[in-house]
Amino acid sequence: MNKNLNASLKQNDSDNLAEERKKMAFDKTNFILLAVGMAIIILGLLLMAGPSSTETHFEPDIFSVRRIKVAPVTCFIGFVFMIYAVLRKPKAK
Predict the structure, then answer these.
(1) Contact at 8 Å (CB) between 72 and 41?
(2) Rounded Cα gap, residues 40 and 56, in angstroms
(3) For residue 7, is it within any domain?
(4) Residues with Cβ within 8 Å of residue 41, at least 6 apart in sequence
(5) pLDDT in tens, the chain (93 residues)
(6) Rounded to 5 degrees, what are φ and ψ at 41?
(7) Nearest Cα to Cα of residue 85 among 25, 42, 43
């Protein structure tokens, strides 16, 4: 009888664990995708960084292709990636 009780408890524990995973909104893949999206956004922000112009000195680098085209597109791709990571449904096992 004790053996049946232990087997029953183990089955209940595994059922509860499966229910907990079903209730969770994100799985491991979602968190990885969120981290990758955040890294892409940070990369875009770093690409935008650079010296600024002052009243006495004009810095022509503020109009470089990297700062006005590549960096904003990189940030946008990162935001789209994060939206996908949030909306992605975990696969049922």
Answers:
(1) no
(2) 35
(3) no
(4) 74, 75, 78, 79, 82
(5) 556 656 665 666 666 666 665 667 788 999 999 999 999 999 999 999 988 888 899 888 889 999 999 999 999 999 999 999 999 988 776
(6) -65, -45
(7) 25
In a domain, 78, yes or no: yes
Nearest Cα to 52, choosing from 71, 34, 32, 67? 67
Instruction: Show the domain range for 39.
Output: 25-93
18 in a structural domain = no
Q: What is the pLDDT of residue 89?
A: 87
Q: Note the pTM of the prediction, 2 decimals.
A: 0.71
Q: Which residue has the tokens 């969120």?
A: 34
Give the chain's domain count: 1
CA distance 43 to 74: 8
